[in-house]
Write a structure and sequence with these properties.
- It is a single chain.
- With about 170 residues, the chain is mostly helical.
- The protein has one domain.
- The chain contains 6 helices and no strands.
- The structure holds zinc ion.
């Protein structure tokens, strides 16, 4: 299994390819929302499927080192997620795991939008492209974990939904 550092190095290096791809695609489609892919790639670099572990992850440790208060706020925010999700359960599936993390991340924004009736319909395509960028990074993570991202329904899982490795 890849360590958190290997996952972080891989997703860090993926970002430049996603920047080039998103730039080309954005220019070709004349759609600035495509740049949401870059945001998604950066988000998924810091927000890995391994947040389902109830320990401080490599990227969380890096955030704490960079900015103590922001790093701990980030850790505390994701603590319930680590309690609720079994390691390598639904968090390590695509698209469900990626979608759960994106919804969890945007939950405070969604509450504000709902409470203050803010119209963010124009941002829907941005969120879609953020999901694409995040998905690319999550696929990379899942492949390093020897999990086939697109074989969600065919992989053997135990009763808690965890992938049985080596099957
Ligand atoms: Zn993992």
């Amino acid at each position: 299994m890849a360590t958190g550092k290997i996952h972080a190095q891989t997703t860090q290096s993926n970002i430049k390819y996603i920047v080039v791809s998103a730039t080309g695609l954005g220019i070709y489609l004349h759609n600035p929302a495509v740049f949401g892919m870059i945001a998604g790639a950066v988000i998924a670099h810091w927000l890995t499927p391994d947040y389902d572990l109830n320990t401080i992850q490599y990227t969380q440790r890096m955030l704490i080192r960079k900015c103590w208060i922001m790093g701990w706020a980030w850790r505390v925010y994701w603590y319930p997620y680590s309690i609720l999700c079994a390691h390598r359960g639904s968090s390590h599936t695509w698209p469900l795991g990626t979608l759960i993390r994106l919804v969890y991340l945007l939950l405070p924004l969604a509450i504000l939008v709902y409470c203050y009736s803010i119209n963010l319909a124009g941002l829907a395509s941005w969120v879609g492209f953020i999901f694409v960028g995040q998905s690319l990074q999550d696929w990379s993570h899942l492949r390093l974990d020897h999990i086939m991202p697109y074989a969600v329904f065919t992989q053997k899982r135990n009763r808690r939904g965890k992938v049985k490795l080596g099957v």
